[in-house]
Each structure stands twice: as C-alpha cells, then as structure tokens.
From TrEMBL, chain A:
Protein name in the entry: Acyl-CoA desaturase
Taxon lineage: Bacteria, Bacillati, Actinomycetota, Actinomycetes, Mycobacteriales
Region (Disordered): 445-468
GO cellular component, one term: membrane
CDD domains, per the entry: Delta6-FADS-like (cd03506)
Gene Ontology MF term list: oxidoreductase activity, acting on paired donors, with oxidation of a pair of donors resulting in the reduction of molecular oxygen to two molecules of water
Domain of life: Bacteria
Biological process per Gene Ontology, one example term: lipid biosynthetic process
Fatty acid desaturase domain segment(s): 69-335
TrEMBL record, chain B:
The organism of origin for this protein: Nocardia mangyaensis
Annotated InterPro entries: 2Fe-2S_ferredoxin-like_sf (IPR036010), 2Fe-2S_ferredoxin-type (IPR001041), Beta-grasp_dom_sf (IPR012675), Cbr1-like_FAD-bd_dom (IPR008333), FAD-bd_FR_type (IPR017927), FNR_nucleotide-bd (IPR039261), MRET (IPR050415), OxRdtase_FAD/NAD-bd (IPR001433)
Transmembrane spans: none
Gene3D superfamilies: 3.10.20.30, Nucleotide-binding domain of ferredoxin-NADP reductase (FNR) module, Translation factors
Annotated FAD-binding FR-type domain residues: 53-161
Name the record gives this protein: Stearoyl-CoA 9-desaturase
Entry-linked PANTHER family: NADH OXIDOREDUCTASE HCR
Pfam family for this entry, one: Fer2
PROSITE patterns in the record: 2FE2S_FER_2 (PS51085), FAD_FR (PS51384)
UniProtKB keywords: 2Fe-2S, FAD, Flavoprotein, Iron, Iron-sulfur, Metal-binding, Oxidoreductase
Cofactor: FAD
Length: 468, 376
C-alpha cells in the first residue's frame, strides 16, 4: 500500500497542514507580486540564446564532413535542443510566463521542438500528471506505462524486460512521451485506441512528419554532400537531448523518498494536503547555476510541483523558503547529487523487474514507496509532539529517522540473536563432536581389546596344537 | 490547378500570418518547413523586432506633447501593417510595462497612407492620460522614442465615407476629438473639406488637443467651422443651441465621440428629432479597473448569459448554463481552461489580481468582477 492518508503519514495535525498550505500560498504570492522586468528579460534572453545556438549549430553542420565541425555542430545543436525542451518548451507550456501577456511566449500557443504536439503534451503533463502527481492509477507518468516503479503494481512477466525497456525509453524519450501523450489525449476524448484517423491522430501525424522531415530529410539535404554526416549529427543531438531529459525526469520522480499515493488520498483532499503530496512525491537534485539552467530548473522538482506555473528562474529562491518550511514542520526534503538520485531510480527499475517473492521489503516499507503503515508496528516515542523547550517539532522527518533507527535496532537485535544461536549451535556441535570422538575412541579401544582377546585365544589354541 | 495546390501547400505553415504576408508567404511557408515548429519570423524578429509578420509590431519614432496630459505618438509599423485603413478607425496597441504587455485601443489621428519625413510610412495616435490609467499615463509621460510596441490591425465602423458627405457635423469632447482629427486631416489632405461644423468641448484652452491645427484649418477652409466650447468658463455645450447656431444640423451627417453622458444626450436628442439614422457614435472604452464582485457573465459564441456572485468561478458559471468550457485540474495549475476575456473584468480568486479585456484568464480560478464576456 502506498500512502492513503497523508495526515497519518506526515505526523502533522489537520491544522498544521492547513497552516503549512497558507505559508506556501504566501510564498507563491510573494513571487507573483514581484514578477517583473527582470524575469521578462530572463526568458527573452533565454529564447534569443537558444535561437542563436540552434542557428549556429545548423550552420556549422554545413561543414560536418570535417570531424571538428561535426563535433562542434552536434554539441551546439544538442545544447540548443536541451534548452528548447527543458527551459522553454516545458516551462512556457506550464504557463510560467503567461503573466507577461505576450502572445508569443504563452502556454496556449507555444509549440516545441519535440516529436509530439505541445497541446497533447500539455493535457497529459499539466493536467494528468501535475494534478494527480504520483497517485497510482491516476498519474500515468508513474513508470510511463512500461516500467514497474512501485511494488504496489502487480508483477507481470513482461517486467523482466525492464532493464532493456529502460534503455530504450531513455534513448527514444521524445517518442515515448509523444505516444504516451497521444494515448492519454485519446483516452480523455473517449476515442478508441485502434482508431487512427481521429483529430488527435492527425494532429500527431502532422507534427511527427514535420519534425522528422526537418531533422532527417530537409537539413541533411540542404547541406548537400555533407548530408550523411549532418543526418548523423541531427540524430545524435536528438539522442543527447532524449537522454538528458530522461535523466532529469527520472531524478525528479523516482529516487527513494519520492513517495506514491493511493486514490483514497484524493478523497476530499485539501489544498494543504495537495501541497504535501507534491512535496513528498517529488525529489530534487543538487545543481549549480549551469546545470540548473540546463535542466530547465527541474533540479528544483519539489518547488516545480508545488508551483508549476511560477517562473522557473525563481525556483532557486523559492527552494530556500521551502526548505525552511520543511525544517519547521519536520518534513523530509528529498535531494542528492544527480548521480546518486539516478542510481536510486536505476536500482528500483532493476529490482522491481523481479517478482515480489525475490524482494525483501513490503510496499509499506520499501525504499521506493512507503505508507503510514510503515510506522504501525514501530513504537515511536510520542507522535505529534512539539518540544516545549526547543520548540522543535516531531514530525515525519524525525519519524522516518526513528523508523530507520528502530529498523536498524531491530536488525541489529536479530543479528545478535542469530549470532548467539550460531555460537550455541557451534558449541553444541563441538560438544557432540567431542562426544562422538570419545565414543569412537571407546569403540576403537573396545575393538582393539576384543581383537587382542581374540588373538590371545587364537594364540593359545595354536600353542596347544603346537604343543600337541 | 496543380500549381495552385502546390502553392497552397507551400504556404500552409505560414497560413496563420494570412494575407498580411502577401507574396512573401510562399517563401515564408517554404522556410518554415526547416524552421518548424517556429516560423522564420521568430528568428527574424531577433535581428529586427519589426521583421515579424506573425505579429504586427511598430516602433515609436516620436512623442509630441499635445497638452499637459496628452501626447501624440508617431509609430513606424513593421511588416504586414495595412495602411489602407479608413479615417476614424482605431488600432490596438500593446506596450511593455514591468515585463508585462498591456493592451489598449486608440484612434488613429493620421490620414491613411500618411508619409512622414524621409518618405517613411507612419501612423499616429493621440493619448490622453487618465487619472487612474496606468498605461495612458505611461504613454503620455514615460514612453521613449525607439520603444517597440505591438499593434492590432485597424478596425471600427466609426468612419468617414469616401467621398465625404456634403454637410457634416462633428461633436466631440476631450480625447473624443482623436478619430475626428483623422477625418479632418484626411479631408484636408485630399482637399475635400466639405461644409463641416466641428463643435469641440474642453475645460480650458490649454486642454484643447490640436488647438492650433483646428484654428489653422478654420482659417484655410471657408467651409470649415471650428467651434470651441471651453466648459470651465462657458459651461457645457447645449444641444438646444444647435437650432440657433447651426439650424441645418438635422441635414448634416453627424459623428459624435466623447464621454458616455454626452453621447447618451446626443443620441436622445437625435432620436427625438427623428434623424437618428444620420448619427454615428463612437463610445470609447474607458480605461478603468474592475467595478465590483460578481456580475453578468456572457459567453460570446453561444450568447448565453447568467448572473453570478463574486465567489463563483467562471468555469462553474459556464457549466451551470451548459456551455462547453475546457477544463482540467480545477485548481489553477494546469492552464487547460484558459479563455480570452473579451470584455469587462475578472478577478483571480487566489490572489485578487484583476484581469482586463484581452487578457487570457484561467476560468477555474477566476470570477466575474462586474459584467464580463468570455470569448467562447
């Protein structure tokens, strides 16, 4: 079971959750009221820089038969595609820049340089994923339909192929997303899967053919004799962008500590609980300014999920305040290096390829999911406590630490018992061995004795005969 | 036939630019296939902001002070602007303040196909600062020459026919003079000033926009009468005095523009005289903020309306009268429900921010702030 009751899981009272929600609202308002020329300049410069990088990359690739030109052009184009995808396409489509009232930088009109149409992605991502973040059965981004990312999902033999499916998804991420979004679009519109001539299908086909024609036909053709190397360069740039986008998304949603929720949690969910679900369901990774920019500021995935429509360039300052709130309410703030976060996700992908009987933990207490039941058989000192002296609150983070300590204690105890049992067994074995040796020796002695008696007897008989 | 089909296919990606692009659209469409999903304009406007036909743009080349609180902005439009508008029409102008584009409509004050110094085709508008109008104050007091603005194509039915009627009466007050100025200048330029009476009201002489020019026109054209009514010293212009001053007013084709109260009175007066068909009226949309909480919501394309309180979201309002509105999360995060507010005001329920006509609003977290109309 994933989390069904966020209040029970977080060790906060309903009033605490409401106050936390209000504090997050006030963070939101302070960013909203301070949006202005500086932010507008940021996005306009980003757009200009991205366009320049792309034009430069395409231009350099005219000489792509030269190895250095190929490398340079491919690098420029890869960076351009990454920025276009992460900082522009993703964030503009979230409505982060709608406040500028600029028709050319608006969520309703932005089209991105990815396989699938923006409009389809917006519905799948902004609506299905961001509203129902990490809710099993509601958020289809949970494993993208092909990966089992929580043991709440029943294992099927196809999951054995997960390691390969993961690699394929990473390399062709834009295609995975495009098909995924088309599926959701058709589902939302009630169009049967098999029908291939519906308006969403046609829109999809149009977009795909334009994208494919551009990168794999028109640009190579334009570069004439260098068409082959340009084609390779374009394919490489798309691959690089796919791998990077995949890594950023996986680090934001699948490391340990990014929790999953059941549909019960949605019942009468308050705004405060919604915020909590976003906070607990996402994970950050540590990044400097350059990496933050290249990830579309999705290294601040927690902040992005709390405030998906606030300008991305403000997430770093929002993060400081969100962390303060986490400290205040004693809530976990999941973060780590990019490498660590990815390895945790990678471990889950490979572990959950196996059937449950090979897995040790239950879904209430697994690294990739836990639930409020995690705390049921662990005796926690006193839930919901505020230390009267220090004012320090006892909440989820402390509970998780306690649970971890308690689990470690339990494990140590079990190990101790095991060791003692082993020692006892060894002693008994030694004893039995000694007894056995003793018995053997006794038996040997008896045999020797009997032999001697027999020999004696025989000798005597021989002696008599000889004497006769 | 085949050629036409091919041309259509070539132009397809630039189809949104429409006829504004003219012959360039074939080229634009062809290039758009390699710049997809963008248009070539998206790159071109980085080099020069006026090189975009995707959106009309202009550069302010001059700001001329008219009175203490009004100014004329001379603008050089970019690619695709249609200079063949009719005198009296207005344009939309979008200007950037604190990172945000703000839109207003202003009457053009220049004659069509107006060429400035150096042979450049220009347009001009006149703006009067409103007491609480952030944008008009900015335009009058703060905007610098060289600023890039966005433009919306000329429109409006308050126009002077070609050729102008033999007998004309203009009734204006305050900045209501601006569309009429365009008509007067057009007549003057074409040397076609017919029998025209222009009654213009302003509080003092210093508040009269284009005062010197009106006097000059009066002097140069015997058929043109400029009647200035300075209301601070002489009171409001009495419509009853028309019989005495210009007894043929019923025969005149009349254009009136000014404050709502004045226009209401004129409308009534013409109606009771039985000559309502000779009257043309332009009501300026007054730059103002939201008037209240709740109001009558109109859904433009379906024509359905209902009255709601200030706490009901526009989405709920629409659904309760059976209008199919797009929706998603219903909590303001997914931007699925965004619809254009074509008239009136709305308020963001989360933070109280006001939304103005032309803004795109998230219907799930916005409520009516006074009467409003949604473009759906």
């Amino acid at each position: 079971m994933a989390i069904t009751d966020i209040q029970g899981y977080t060790h906060l009272t309903a009033a605490d959750i409401e106050t936390l929600g209000k504090e997050l609202d006030s963070i939101r308002r302070s960013v909203e009221t301070s949006r202005g020329e500086r932010d507008a300049r940021y996005i306009r410069r980003t757009i200009a820089a991205q366009r320049c990088l792309e034009v430069a990359g395409r231009a350099v690739l005219f000489g792509s038969r030269n190895r250095w030109a190929w490398l340079g052009g491919t690098a420029l184009l890869s960076v351009a595609k990454i920025i276009e995808n992460m900082e522009l396409g993703h964030n503009v489509s979230h409505g982060q820049w709608d406040w500028m009232n600029d028709p050319e930088i608006h969520s309703t009109s932005w089209e991105w340089d990815m396989t699938g149409p923006s409009a389809q992605w917006r519905r799948a991502h902004n609506y299905s994923h961001h509203t129902y973040t990490n809710v099993l059965g509601k958020d289809e981004d949970l494993g993208f339909g092909i990966l089992r990312m929580t043991r709440d999902e029943a294992w099927r033999p196809v999951h054995l192929a997960q390691p390969a499916a993961n690699l394929l998804l990473a390399a062709t991420f834009e295609w995975g997303i495009a098909l995924h979004d088309l599926g959701i679009e058709k589902e939302l519109a009630g169009i049967p899967d098999k029908k291939l001539t519906s308006p969403p299908d046609l829109e999809f086909a149009r977009k795909v053919s334009r994208q494919v024609a551009k990168d794999f036909v028109l640009y190579p053709a334009l570069t004439g004799p260098a068409w082959k190397s340009t084609l390779k360069a374009n394919a490489t740039a798309n691959l690089v962008r796919n791998l990077w986008a995949y890594a950023v998304i996986f680090c934001g949603h699948f490391p340990d500590g990014a929790e999953k929720f059941t549909i019960e949690q949605l019942d009468g969910e308050t705004q405060g609980e919604w915020y909590l679900r976003q906070m607990l369901g996402s994970a950050n990774f540590k990044a400097g300014p350059v990496m933050a920019f290249m990830s579309g500021n999705l290294c601040y995935q927690i902040e992005h999920h709390l405030f998906p429509d606030l300008p991305s360039n403000r997430y770093s300052e929002v993060a400081v305040r969100v962390r303060e709130l986490c400290d205040k309410y004693d809530l976990p703030y999941t973060t780590g290096s990019l490498g660590k976060q990815y390895l945790l996700a990678f471990r889950t992908i490979h572990k959950l390829a196996l059937p449950d009987r090979f897995l040790k933990r239950t879904s209430d207490d697994a690294p990739e999911t836990s639930s409020e039941r995690k705390f049921s058989d662990i005796s926690l000192p006193e839930r919901l406590r505020v230390d009267p002296e220090t004012g320090k609150r006892f909440g989820l983070r402390s509970a998780l630490q306690d649970a971890k300590a308690s689990l470690q204690e339990k494990a140590r105890h079990e190990k101790e018992v095991l060791r003692e049992a082993k020692v006892a067994l060894k002693a008994r074995a030694r004893q039995e061995k000694a007894a056995l040796r003793e018995a053997k020796r006794a038996l040997g002695e008896r045999a020797t004795h009997e032999r001697e008696v027999l020999q004696d007897k025989a000798a005597r008989r021989w002696g008599r005969r000889v004497a006769r | 036939m085949v050629l036409n089909k091919f041309r259509e296919w070539l132009e397809a990606p630039a189809a949104e630019v429409g006829d504004r692009g003219g012959k360039l659209n074939v080229l634009r469409g062809a290039v758009a296939r390699v710049t997809t999903p963008l248009l070539p304009d998206d790159y071109l406007h980085l080099a020069n902001p006026l090189w975009s036909a995707r959106e009309l743009r202009g550069r302010i080349v001059e700001v001329q002070k008219e009175t203490a609180d009004s100014a004329t902005l001379v603008i050089k439009p970019g690619w695709g602007f249609d200079f063949k508008y009719r005198p009296g029409q207005y344009i939309g102008i979008g200007i950037l303040i604190d990172g945000r584009w703000n839109w207003r409509s202003y009457s053009l004050t220049c004659p069509p196909d107006w060429t400035g110094e150096g042979g450049k085709r220009l347009i001009s508008i006149a703006v009067k600062a409103m007491p609480e109008g952030k944008l008009s104050s900015h335009l009058v007091n703060g905007v610098a020459a060289g600023t890039i603005v966005r433009l919306a194509a000329p429109q409006g039915g308050f126009v002077l026919p070609e050729p102008p009627p033999a007998k004309v009466l203009f009734l204006t007050a305050g900045s209501g003079i601006t569309p009429v100025m365009s008509m007067l200048r057009t007549m003057d330029r074409r040397d076609g000033v017919t029998d025209v009476v222009h009654v213009h009201s302003a509080p003092t002489d210093a508040d009269v926009m284009f005062g010197a020019e009106l006097r000059d026109l009066h002097d140069r054209h015997p058929s043109f009468v400029s009647h200035l009514q300075l209301t601070d010293s002489h009171g409001l212009f009495s419509l009853d005095s028309l019989d005495e001053l210009y007894p043929d007013w019923r025969e005149r084709e009349t254009w009136a523009c000014g404050p709502a109260g004045m226009l209401d009175a004129i409308e009534q007066h013409w109606k009771s005289a039985g000559v309502a068909d000779k009257l043309h009226i332009e009501r300026f949309e007054v730059e103002r903020s939201a008037v209240g909480e709740g109001g009558t919501v109109t859904f433009g394309t379906t024509g359905r309306t209902l009255t709601v309180d200030g706490a009901t979201s526009l989405l709920e309002a629409g659904e309760s009268v059976g209008v199919q509105l797009p929706f998603g999360c219903r909590m303001g995060i997914c931007q699925t429900c965004v619809v254009t507010l074509s008239a009136g005001h709305a308020r963001d329920l989360r933070n109280g921010d006001e939304r103005q006509p032309g803004d795109k609003v998230q219907t799930c977290i916005s409520a009516a702030a006074g009467d409003c109309t949604l473009d759906i």
